[in-house]
Each structure stands twice: as C-alpha cells, then as structure tokens.
C-alpha cells in the first residue's frame, strides 16, 4: 500500500513538505479513536524477536533512527508500525530553527537523501513534555546535541542539560557529535574533547538512583586511526555502546548526475550509498575491540539482506531511516521475517 499509493503522492512534494504532511497525518491518527489500530492494520506484522541489550529488553531489534521524529511527535504511531524502539532527536537545550530551506533533497536514482537540517528542534523542554504524554510503552532513545551558538569548549554543558532533562523520559541516550550540519560539531569527535564530554556524562549518570545506557553516534568518515581512538575512549569512559553510523560527506560512486549533486551543495548523505561504509565501520569496531561493546548498525538498510549484513558484521541491533522512507513499513516486516 505504501509503495503503490502513499509514496507516489508524497514524492510529488518536496521532501520537507512531504515530511510535514506525513507527520500531520500520523499525529491526527494518534489522537482519534482507533487511529493507532488503523496504523497497526496497515503496518508491519513483526515477529517477536526479543533482544536484551544494555539491560533493556527490546521487543525486536529493528529501530527507527534519530532524525525522523526529532521532536517526539509520532512515537506511538511508529510503535504501531512495528518498530522495536524509536530514537528521538537530535534534541538541544534551546529550540532552534536549523539551517535555511531548502535543506532536504532526494536522490531517487541512489535511494538516498542529502540533508543539512542543522539540529532543527523544539528544544528539550517541549520534547520532554511530549514524551510524558506518549501512550505506548515502546523503548525510546534520546539523541542529544549542542545548540549551534554554543562554543565547542562549552558543549558539555548542553549535553548535560539534555541528559538531566530527559533522564526520566527516555530509556537510553545517544551523544551526537557526528552530524556534518552544525559548524564545528565533528571536531568534538577528537579524542580529548570527546573523552571529556563522555566522562562528564558518565559522572552525572552515576549520581542517579539507576543509570541509563549512554551510546555514542559516530560518522562513517572516520579513519582507522580515529576508530582506534573511539575504541580506546569507550574502554576508558565505560560508556555502553556505539551507533554506527551517521550520514557521510562523501559523494563518490553516486548514480545521480554530478551537476545535480553540486547544485545541492553541502549536507549529510544517507541511504543506500552509505551501506557498505557503515557496515565496514561496524566490522572494524567489532573485530578490533573483540566485541567488547554493543553496536547498533544504521546506514543504507533498504532490504532484509542489508539488515543481515549489518548484523553479520557485528551489530546487535539495527535502525532504519532513508530506507524506511523509500520502502515504507513493509521493510520492517521483511527484515523481521528474514531474521
């Protein structure tokens, strides 16, 4: 139904307009009687594949990646579609509009997207109140970042604010220092600033009556030496795992016309072209660390086969984003059956 009826309509609009139309419909369905039942009826029929990770029991290992439901507006709807967990955000302390439009682009030939959204979100207080009102018991992750105006040397304060505000409302946290769309953010992936942020968050975590898992989301563009640093940092800070990977700034091997790519300009590329590199990063981290920490695999999963490749490379669970936009809820069902 999605690929034959819904997708052709949505793809007539520019991507951001299509996103707002979709979320408008999902939010309406969440509010009306039997709305969630309707979503379940047309959504994925997932198999029960309970996965325990970080001390959390996930009903299935297929999650929605951060970036789609930035503001925690449609968690119940995505749960009804069959996702085993939903990651909201990236959330920052203060609301911010993000970068100027247009900032989201489809590369249909590549089944990919380019975005330079820039952490547009309603701010942690608004998101926190929405999370309190959700009806489903789906596992929720909180992806947190810094405001654009916050200097890197003060970034840790933004992460701590989001961590404390969302602590009672999410099941795990993801530290996002890997988006290419906030100026200077990726500099925080260097060993010292990243260690400082993660150590401070772990210290804050240990003050709580019960701790929440803290994960790190990394870019696919890191070198092997930088990935070695990531392994060392995880060992030293004792954070709970990694999400590999975020979007890439690489544009090699695309089918889309080069002139069109150049006219789009900067942004993070997601979707099918990222699959191999993200899988390689997962395999490298898993093998070099001797599987010492869990990895959630994301990037270019648009089929059951690609999901299996992520898991075979060393991922414990997976997340969908661009593949879900192109394939719809059937992708969840197909992966669930294959696993």
TrEMBL record:
Residues bound to FMN: 66-70, 90, 143, 176, 217, 245, 271, 300, 321-322
Pfam families: DHO_dh (PF01180)
InterPro entries, A to Z: Aldolase_TIM, DHO_dehydrogenase, Dihydroorotate_DH_1_2, Dihydroorotate_DH_2, Dihydroorotate_DH_cat, Dihydroorotate_DH_CS
Record localization: Cell membrane; Membrane
Domain Dihydroorotate dehydrogenase catalytic as annotated: residue spans: 50-339
EC main group: oxidoreductase
Binding site for substrate: 70, 115-119, 176, 181, 246-247
Enzyme Commission number(s) from the entry: 1.3.5.2
Domain of life from the UniProt record: Bacteria
UniProt entry keywords in alphabetical sequence: Cell membrane, Flavoprotein, FMN, Membrane, Oxidoreductase, Pyrimidine biosynthesis
Catalytic residue list: 179
Membrane topology summary: Peripheral membrane protein
Annotated metabolic or biological route of this protein: Pyrimidine metabolism; UMP biosynthesis via de novo pathway; orotate from (S)-dihydroorotate (quinone route): step 1/1
Reaction(s) this enzyme catalyzes, per UniProt: (S)-dihydroorotate + a quinone = orotate + a quinol
Cofactor notes: Binds 1 FMN per subunit.
Gene3D superfamilies per the UniProt record, alphabetical: Aldolase class I (3.20.20.70)
Chief localization: membrane
SUPFAM superfamilies: FMN-linked oxidoreductases
Cofactor(s) the protein needs: FMN
Family indicated by similarity: Belongs to the dihydroorotate dehydrogenase family. Type 2 subfamily.
Protein name: Dihydroorotate dehydrogenase (quinone)
Gene: pyrD
